[in-house]
Amino acid sequence: MVDGIEQEYRRWRDREPLVLQAQDHAALQELAENLPAIWHSETTQPEDRKRILRFIVQEVVLDQKKIRGQVAIRILWQTGATSEHQIQRRVQSYDRDNGELELVRERITELNAAGDMDRQIAKILNDEGVRSARGKLFSYENIWLLRHRWGIPTAKINGVAANPPRWRDGTYSVQGAAAAIGVTAQIIFDYLAQGLVHGRQSTKGQPWQISLSSDQIDQLQRRLQRTRRSRKGAS
Q: Which residues pair with 170 in a beta bridge?
């Protein structure tokens, strides 16, 4: 009974043209202008959004091969107009071989070869709209892990040249600090671990930039002399 009534109603709608009055046009115009607010309203349920989409969208075509690492979307609206969009393709893991993986690998390799550090690479990728496997922003830790997974060497702040005794900002390299104090490079690493000297690395694998004043150098030299005298006395 109900099915028969619905079928008869559809046949009637097909025969009878839809005539809109002036107030109908005004109501539809108001609805169109308020559509974003209605869509994002907390009171709008998922099933309501589906109904809205059916009213305004006729067809959606997805193409994952048109643009490498992205999904091309073509929308045919109920009005007959079309629009095209691209979104970054999301993957569950970079362990799989796919276009997104190769896109990220090539970009990191290119930026690394240009001398960019991991933190800089992360910012550039984020600015370019590239996202991590789960659609999140890159951090320098992500870049470090991916480089080591792919065997991409760390870009040195001094390129391929040997570390100078002192960097441009006045800080010392490990070798420069060792020469200034009169110890081996390993002793400087021990001092760093013990907190006797302070330094920084722009990221893992980068050379140390050690802050040393003339007073600190004198103190460490006197400490070294005391240590040597005590060892002689003990022997």
A: none
Question: Taking a C-beta distance cutoff of 8 angstroms, is the pair 174, 200 a contact?
Answer: no
Per-residue pLDDT of the chain (235 residues), as tens digits, is 446 556 665 665 566 555 656 776 676 677 667 777 877 888 888 887 888 777 777 888 887 666 655 678 888 887 778 888 877 655 444 544 455 678 888 999 998 888 787 888 899 998 888 877 677 888 888 888 888 888 888 776 666 567 889 988 899 999 999 999 999 999 999 999 999 999 998 766 678 899 999 999 999 999 888 887 777 666 5
The token pair at 121 is 């690479």
Distances (CA, A) of 96 to 91, 92, 99, 114: 9, 9, 10, 27
175-180 long-range contacts, CB within 8 A, separation 24+ = 176/210, 177/210, 177/212, 180/212, 180/217
Q: What is the distance between the alpha carbons of residues 140 and 155, in angstroms, rounded to a whole number?
A: 13
Q: How many helices (H) and strands (E) does the chain have?
A: 9, 5
What is the C-alpha separation between 1 and 108, in angstroms, rounded?
Answer: 66
CA distances in angstroms from 132 to 32, 102, 108, 228, listed in the order given: 36, 13, 12, 53
Spatial separation of the C-alpha atoms in residues 31 and 81, rounded to whole Å: 19
CB 117 within 8 A of CB 202: yes
> Which residue type does 30 have?
E
116 CB-near residues (< 8 Å, 6+ apart) = 124, 155
Rounded to 5 degrees, φ, ψ at 59 are -155, 145
